[in-house]
Design goal:
Layout (H helix, E strand, L loop, with lengths): L3 E6 L3 H10 L5 E6 L13 E3 L10 E4 L6 H9 L7 E4 L15 E3 L1 E3 L20 E4 L4 H9 L3 E4 L5 H22 L2 H6 L2 H6 L7 H30 L3 H18 L11
Parallel strand pairs: 1-2, 1-4, 2-3, 4-5, 5-6, 8-9
Antiparallel strand pairs: 7-8
Length: about 270
């Protein structure tokens, strides 16, 4: 059986985890580009190089660079890839990409998996297990790869993507930073697991935070406004109404994830 020639551009946590999950598969021939980490994988893949043209003859290429570098990377790929190559991004914001056209086939996607950790050493071949992988349309090769990674492909309208991610990813990340910053040194000294878990995202790479703000500010502010409205609504409730609301929310939250922490919510 002919192997799929799969390229990965960028070896931070997403790209490195794709590599780690597929490097031993007999279905794929991996071609890796990274400016700094290519030497860590060169003995385990077909080819790895600091030259981005290492992915030139691939069937499919995943662009896993920093969010701030995604469009620049796609433009570079556009200079040498042909129409038969499928290129897939993994960005958490689509504002700069949604109306772009290239010489190659291009599909917007976003794996709903990640960590506050970054870099090659943060790789995890189990990262995508049970996670939803958002895509704008069905494509057989892409869907097979997503499923081989253990993820669940989910087709969505990418026009809604940035608004949805502002609510469940970008705003929570910013609030995690602010929550930590609001706590005094005295309070931090006695903090335990609750504070630890709710501020985990405050360890997110600062470059990603700036990119999120630059590319999705309007949606983040909209999500923040909704949260403030919820807070004002809460203040005007009686104690019994607050209890009913909290119990309802707690029930919904409990039902949203399975015992392994994977999202099982369905509309």
């Amino acid at each position: 059986m002919k192997k799929t020639k799969l390229g990965i551009v960028g070896l931070s946590i997403i790209g490195a985890s794709i590599y780690d999950a597929l490097k031993d598969s007999l279905d794929y021939e991996l071609y890796i580009h990274s400016n700094s980490s290519f030497d860590k994988v060169k003995d385990f893949v077909k080819s790895a190089s600091s030259d981005i043209e290492v992915v030139k003859n691939c069937d499919i290429v995943f662009v896993c660079t920093k969010l701030s570098q995604t469009l620049k990377t796609l433009t570079t790929l556009n200079s040498f890839l042909n129409k038969n190559t499928l290129v897939v991004d993994v960005s958490s914001s689509k504002k700069e990409l949604i109306n772009k056209t290239f010489n190659f086939s291009f599909i917007l996607s976003h794996p709903m998996a990640g960590s506050e950790k970054t870099g090659f050493e943060a790789k995890d071949k189990e990262l995508f297990k049970g996670a939803r992988w958002l895509v704008e349309k069905k494509e057989e090769t892409l869907f097979k790869i997503i499923k081989d990674l253990g993820a669940i492909p989910l087709i969505i309208d990418m026009k809604d993507h940035d608004s949805l991610c502002a609510q469940i990813s970008h705003l929570p990340t910013l609030l995690s930073f602010l929550l930590f910053d609001c706590a005094s040194k005295e309070a931090r000294q006695i903090a335990s697991s609750g504070f630890r878990d709710t501020t985990r995202l405050a360890m997110t790479n600062s470059d990603l935070i700036i990119s999120m703000l630059n590319t999705n500010e309007d949606n983040i502010l909209s999500a923040l406004s909704r949260m403030l409205e919820k807070l004002n609504y809460l203040k005007n409730l009686s104690d019994s109404e607050k209890i009913n609301l909290f119990e309802q929310i707690a029930h919904q939250r409990k039902a949203m994830y399975d015992k392994n922490g994977k999202n099982i919510f369905k509309i």
